[in-house]
Design brief:
This protein is α+β, with helices and mostly antiparallel strands. It has two domains: about 5-140, Fructose-1,6-Bisphosphatase, Chain A, domain 1 (2-Layer Sandwich), CATH 3.30.540.10; about 150-270, 3-Layer(aba) Sandwich (D-Maltodextrin-Binding Protein, domain 2), CATH 3.40.190. Helices cover about 40% and strands about 25% of the residues. It contains eight helices and 13 strands. The protein has helices at about 5-30, 40-60, 90-95, 170-180, 190-200, 215-225, 240, 250-265; strands at about 65-70, 75, 80-90, 105-110, 115-120, 125-130, 135-140, 140, 155-160, 185, 205-210, 230, 245-250. The chain has an eight-stranded mixed β-sheet with strand order 2-1-3-4-5-6-7-8, with helices on both faces. A five-stranded mixed β-sheet has the order 10-9-11-13-12, with helices on both faces. A hairpin with a 3-residue loop joins strand 6 and strand 7. The longest helix has 25 residues, at about 5-30. The radius of gyration is 18 Å and the shape is globular. The model has no long low-confidence stretch (mean pLDDT about 95). Bound molecules: D-MYO-inositol-1-phosphate and calcium ion (CA) (2 copies).
Length: about 270
């Protein structure tokens, strides 16, 4: 049986409501009927509308809980022990390019600990959920990370910097190391789904730099509840602070960490991890 706790029920309802408009907007983008202002503004509007809907739904269901949201930022609640962490549209570039790979990401923290998580791709209708101590689920199916033990047979996901972002050299060095030692690297463009896919055993490992808490908070719990290891690139439990993430099943986590560390050491760029 899939998770049906009160919190998950509330989160699923909020995500489903917000996803209706996102899906309609995506349909319009696919037909290239974008507003005169261009796709960027169109996407921003879709993003803001989805966030507003999620905010309304969650605040109504759980009055007093605080928020950390990508667009609206921090909203203090009267209940200092609970906080929602929300990315209303993760994978904006995909959305803008009519690539059906994006998600709504919602996590709930209690006293600074992640306790409930949801990542939802409205196009595929894949709903990934997890609750602390209760496992991770894809719709009605229980999730488990992959059992591969050999990097050489593993598919590893990542995210890469683009124009205007720093660290291209260091990340190219990491990419070179991983692509020469594994069965393949994937860059799908939505960090929340990268983590959910890892939890589902589709990817064997995933790493990325410079992420925001709303990109990864929900995915971290989903991976952990599916039996995966999550740390920052230095092996610490500081992902939400450093923005760096490295995740895999237990046998692959350390070898992947060492491979990446070695690559950064050998690169021309600055490695301060
Ligand atoms: C982005 C996606 C992407 C990652 C970027 C994020 P956004 O989030 O998660 O996969 O590589 O660093 O910023 O901007 O689409 O919400
Ligand atoms: Ca994001
Ligand atoms: Ca976003």
């Amino acid at each position: 049986m899939a998770l049906q706790s009160a919190n998950i029920t509330v989160m699923v309802a909020a995500a489903r409501k917000a996803s209706r408009k996102l899906k309609r907007d995506f349909g319009e983008l696919e037909n290239l009927q974008v507003s005169k202002k261009g796709p960027a503004d169109f996407v921003t509007t879709a993003d803001l509308t989805a966030e507003r809907k999620i905010f309304e739904e969650l605040s109504h269901a759980r009055p007093g809980y605080g928020f950390l949201m990508e667009e609206k930022g921090v909203v203090e609640g009267t209940d200092p022990s609970h906080r929602w962490i929300v990315d209303p549209l993760d994978g904006t570039t995909n959305f803008m390019h009519a690539i059906p790979h994006f998600a709504i990401s919602i996590a709930l923290e209690r006293e600074g600990t992640l306790v409930a998580a949801l990542v939802y791709n409205p196009i595929t209708d894949e709903m990934f959920t997890a609750e602390r101590g209760q496992g991770a689920w894809l719709n009605d199916r229980r999730l488990r990370v992959s059992a591969r033990k050999d990097l050489g047979q593993s598919v590893i996901a990542t995210g890469l910097p683009f124009m205007g972002q720093p660290n291209h050299e260091v990340e190219l060095a990491e990419l070179r190391a991983v692509m020469t030692k594994t069965a393949g690297v994937r860059r799908f463009g939505a960090a929340s789904l990268d983590l959910a896919y890892l939890a589902a055993g589709r990817f064997d490992g995933y790493w990325e730099h410079a992420l925001k808490p709303w990109d990864i908070a929900a995915g971290i719990l989903i991976v952990r509840e599916a039996g995966g290891f999550v740390s920052d690139l230095a092996g610490r439990d500081l992902m939400l602070k450093t923005g760096d993430i490295l995740t895999a099943n237990e046998p692959l986590h350390r070898p992947l960490q060492e491979l990446l560390r070695g690559a950064r050491k050998g690169s021309q760029g600055v490695d301060n991890l």
